[in-house]
From TrEMBL:
Positions of transmembrane segments: 9-28, 34-57, 69-90, 96-114, 126-143, 149-168, 180-200, 212-232, 253-284
Domain EamA: from-to ranges: 9-139, 152-284
Membrane topology qualifier: Multi-pass membrane protein
InterPro entries linked: AA-Vitamin_Transporters, EamA_dom, EmrE-like
SUPFAM superfamilies assigned to the protein according to its UniProt record, in alphabetical order: Multidrug resistance efflux transporter EmrE
Stored Pfam families: EamA (PF00892)
Annotated localization: Endomembrane system
Protein's recorded name: DMT family transporter
Record's keyword terms, sorted: Membrane, Transmembrane, Transmembrane helix
Entry's family note: Belongs to the EamA transporter family.
Length: 314
């Protein structure tokens, strides 16, 4: 497969992942009202683990190596434990639009960790596009009056940081372990520790929750916690972590759109204007060059972080 075609497929898969993730906060907001933070935040992983275990057994997947296990542990802490639990807690009191704005900082966190963990070096054009997108969402937050941070705001910011690390680590590991295998093994690592706290928080009243609450919870467990990550990590592995992460700038506005459709939250003209600016930054960023260690320069060749001098040039 040609590099250009591979990158395009990677961007498309990244977009599919982002669309799926954009329904996460609206679904969480609906589910926590009836099931609570612990059941929604951790219970989704327990349910997803059943599906994942079946897939791993049927495919007879090999166990990860000790080195890969360490990376999987990082992914599990961010994508399986921290982010679901923190966002579930925040969505008990915050509107989806509020959470969507703060999660818009995720591309910067992902790109930053990508440089350190995957060896990607975004260009100046890439960072300019990131700054444009981040500035746009910050202005959006100020316009909506979110200047005073609360504990729930801090929870979302921490969620952004740990998920950014998880994305960067998972995107790197996906190239050797496989895209869906990364989140699958991460779920299997985390699920056993969640069974007891989830079980202690189950109540008979939950059985009488409305259909929309059950649909939201099942979506979180099957799609948000597993299938969306398959598309997302596949996209990052094929298109590059830093470049594909730019698509995340669309996520907050997709979240707001879904919140308007399913939760009847309003969409203002200012939101639409900011969305246009953010889309522009995505277009700018996805076309920006992203260097990786192991590229050819004018005077030297860098391979596996070792410098080999071109003898013809002395």
């Amino acid at each position: 497969m040609q590099k250009e075609t591979r990158e395009k497929i990677g961007l498309l898969l990244g977009l599919v992942g982002v669309i799926c993730f954009s329904l996460t906060l609206p679904s969480t907001r609906i589910a926590v009202e009836y099931f609570g933070t612990t059941v929604v935040g951790l219970g989704r992983t327990v349910v997803a683990a059943i599906l994942v275990a079946i897939v791993l057994i049927v495919r007879k997947e090999k166990l990860p190596s000790p080195r890969q296990f360490i990376s999987l542990l990082i992914v599990a802490v961010g994508a399986v434990l921290g982010f679901p639990l923190l966002t579930s807690w925040a969505m008990e009191s915050l509107p989806v639009s509020h959470g969507a704005v703060e999660l818009a900082l995720l591309p910067l966190a992902t790109a930053g960790f990508a440089m350190f963990r995957a060896g990607e070096v975004p260009s100046l054009k890439f960072w300019i596009s990131s700054i444009i997108g981040s500035f746009a969402v910050i202005m959006y937050a100020l316009h909506l009056g979110f200047e005073q941070l609360q504990f729930t705001d801090l929870a979302l910011l921490v969620a952004v940081i740990i998920l950014g690390l998880s994305y960067g680590e998972g995107g790197k590991l996906a190239k050797e372990l496989g895209s869906w295998q990364v989140i699958a093994w991460s779920i299997m690592i985390g699920a056993p520790f969640f069974i007891i706290p989830v079980g202690l928080n189950l109540t008979t009243e939950m059985l009488h929750a409305p259909l929309q609450a059950w649909v939201s919870f099942i979506y979180l467990a099957v799609v948000s916690q597993f299938l969306a990550y398959v598309a997302w990590y596949s996209g990052m592995a094929m298109g590059g972590i830093a470049r594909v992460s730019q698509i995340q700038y669309l996520q907050p506005f997709l979240m707001i759109l879904f919140a308007a459709v399913f939760l009847h939250e309003s969409i203002t003209l200012f939101t639409i204007v900011i969305a246009v600016i953010v889309v522009f930054s995505v277009i700018l960023g996805k076309n920006a060059p992203v260097e990786k260690k192991g590229t050819v320069t004018e005077n030297r060749i860098v391979l596996n972080e070792e410098v080999v001098i071109d003898k013809d040039r002395g």
